[in-house]
Amino acid sequence: MVEIDPINQSAVVVSALLWPYKTIVAFEPENRLARRNNWQQQQQQQQQHQQQQQQQQQQQQLRQGGNSNIRERSFVCVDCGKAYAVHRSLWRHLKFECINAKPKFTCDACPYKSPHKWCIENHKKKHHSNVYN
């Protein structure tokens, strides 16, 4: 025998024909999917809320200046204005990357120049492989 549960309208009560004392409560698949989707939406909303709270806390810490994880970029390049948190990074930038970085290595077969030795080696392998092999 199949009846609709009066308390929970989405549930269907199925009575076993052979054993009348045993009842099985079965939920309709549409309602099961709806409940699952509602649960997923609630989880997504909770995650978004937590992310918003974390962002607000980070912004407050930045305003107060109390976040020790974020380093102040106090080393600034005079030529291009790029800032670094560590002096060695600024030194590397000035030596190899900046506008005024002079290429110290040249290709033997063409006028290609680079401040990095590995760039010259890659250039030779790529463009002059027949000359150097």
TrEMBL record:
Gene Ontology MF terms in the entry: zinc ion binding
Record bears the keyword Zinc: yes
Coiled coil: none
Composition skew (Low complexity), residue ranges: 40-61
Residue ranges occupied by any C2H2-type domain in the UniProt entry: 75-103
Stored PROSITE patterns: ZINC_FINGER_C2H2_2
Superkingdom of the source species: Eukaryota
Region (Disordered): 36-66
Record bears the keyword Zinc: yes
Keyword annotations of the record: Metal-binding, Zinc, Zinc-finger
Transmembrane segment boundaries: none
Name under which the protein is recorded: C2H2-type domain-containing protein
Organism field: Tetragonisca angustula
Organism classification: Eukaryota, Metazoa, Ecdysozoa, Arthropoda, Hexapoda
